[in-house]
């Protein structure tokens, strides 16, 4: 069941350089849906616009254009409507150190959303819910953990508290913005497994934002790849990773450590090894004035051709699999 619908989402940021005002397009006409009990991964390099997408969905940043709908109803950005939306759509931030207030206890961090969203009948009910939230994220004994302040916890424990806080209003959508990128490698999998378990238990619609294709494939049903604010490829997670079509996705797939690649898991077709090397590093955000000037990847793309001077649309290459590249203009793999 579709829970959150995003259509034509755009975000422009104004930038002043040398006395001139320029608009930088961080997100360009992005459309997708999140469904209950399903994880969708949004993948891309730093600066590709993926975190801006999460912030718009969390209503921390106002979109320049486009619509965000919950259960088919465009969301309200003020008053009671906004509070109800925030109850349904919660976010886990990348930085478990900065997202918790160092002056407050874990108990305070969990009690506050219960009160703001009126989830408890009285203080005893709040206490019970706090205990339950901590148990759900495997922070026990709950009474001991609740009395601690963030500096008394490890990075992984802080992220568990942040996840428990996100669960407090009983949301239906969880936006996980690089939730493990600042944690030790040894505990990343534990946190991702925790989010996956909670997704199943609560039928959460999860948007998993990451630059890590391997975990995106493992934990997600669909993968969307962004480059310079644009969606360049989206489809079934296995199909995108094992048969990446867009030259940029091929670069990402080739760079991702994957012990199965050489083995050809289940006889699946593996991405061709002739993946081009990336071109020079370039600014990742596109100036609005550059938008119409063709494919944004063409400066780095070894397959660039004359047609690439025009901006490619998203083209279907398989059932539910779209690619923004002129190589697929006839609808088949080139
Ligand atoms: Fe490369 Fe052209 Fe495809 Fe862009 S449209 S990715 S430049 S082949």
UniProtKB/TrEMBL annotation:
PROSITE patterns: ABC_TRANSPORTER_1, ABC_TRANSPORTER_2. The keyword Nucleotide-binding applies. It is an enzyme of class 3 (hydrolase). One of its GO terms (biological process) is transmembrane transport. Its EC number is 3.6.3.-. Keywords: ATP-binding, Hydrolase, Nucleotide-binding. GO terms for molecular function: ATP binding; ATP hydrolysis activity. It comes from the Bacteria. Pfam families: ABC_tran, oligo_HPY. The keyword Hydrolase applies. This is Glutathione import ATP-binding protein GsiA. It comes from Actinoalloteichus hoggarensis. The gene is gsiA1.
